[in-house]
Amino acid sequence: MRQALFFLANLTLAGACAAAPQDSIFVCVDSEGHKTYQNSSEGSACHRVDGLIATIPATELPRGGSARAPARPSISPASFPRIDASTQRMRDGDRRRILEEELRSEEDRLAHLRTEFNHGQPQPASDESLGTGRYREHVQRLFEDIERSEGNIASLRRELTPFRY
Q1: Residues in Cβ contact with 135 at an 8 Å cutoff, skipping those fewer than 6 apart
Q2: Prediction pTM value
């Protein structure tokens, strides 16, 4: 009985799959003659492509017949202001100097935080006592500040490593 139900279920499933519509590909031609391949027939100039499409149509070659690569468009518009090399070098030097100053101040801050943290045993403030919730919050805050400072130092060092400096 169980095998008969299993066979009937598989037969029903196979019939449903065969009756399900398959994905279709349509080719649409615009008013200028450009072809577009899509999965829906939006527009009046679209017709269904039957069979397997094994290749993607290439773009048309120029009239000269050469297969040269087309010229790449400029990244920035022609009206975009250009900076000469010496000015850019000066700006890069200023940027590097600023990053180095930030790195030194962050390293000093980290040294101060580590001294204050005292390996997880910081001195309690005047309104704190060891083992209280307020003291634990103080220790946790110092620990988070140390982690943040270490992350800042790592980021600054990454910024300073590019080969362009």
Answers
A1: 124, 128, 129
A2: 0.49
Please give the tally of structural domains in the chain. Answer: 2
Residue 151 identity? G
The 8-class DSSP code of residue 146 comes to H
Helix pair angle (85-117, 133-160), 10° resolution: 160
Q: What residue has token string 């066979």?
A: 7
Which positions of the chain have pLDDT values less than 50? 1, 4-9, 11-21, 165
Report the relative pairing of strands 46-49 and 35-38 from DSSP bridges.
Answer: unpaired
Task: Give the strands of the sheet with 25-29, arranged side by side.
Answer: 35-38, 25-29, 46-49
- Rg of the Cα trace of the chain? 35
Q: What is the C-alpha separation between 99 and 89, in angstroms, rounded?
A: 15
Task: Flag whether 138 is in a domain.
Answer: yes
Q: Establish if 16 belongs to a structural domain.
A: no
Task: Answer yes or no: is 10 within a domain.
Answer: no
- Is residue 96 located within the same domain as residue 152? yes
